[in-house]
Write the structure tokens for this entry.
Amino acid sequence: MQLTIEIKNELAFKLRDQAQLNGVDLGQYIAMLIQDKLPHSVEKTSSKQALSPEETHLFQKINYGFSESFWARFKELNTKRGENKLDEKERLELISLTDEMEKANVERIKALITLAQIRETDLESLMAELGILYGKDIQKD
């Protein structure tokens, strides 16, 4: 079934950035978010507790995303790199952007590990529960 909704550009950009960080297309990411918010049963909905401040902080790290301008510049530089058209300044900028992404991913994984420990589960199970795809689950186009 196809559903069309109108959202503000700022939210659309955030959703797109998060989808890219999760390695899925925008439609899949939005569907995962909606699925996670739907109650599976009345009992499960009524038994949910609010997140602790520590969990809230961890989810902020897990859900961190880069701006639309960040991704646009990264794609532009990466395309130029693929065409062997980068000058030295651009090469250093691309390295810097890549370093930022790697640091953010390290922080994200650390936060996921901490959250898994708090919830007394393993990382793989937590990621599956949160709908975060990784490794063998990511399908290449």
Notes: The two ends are 22 Å apart (CA to CA). The chain has seven helices and no strands. Residues 9-137 form one domain. The chain has one domain: 9-137.
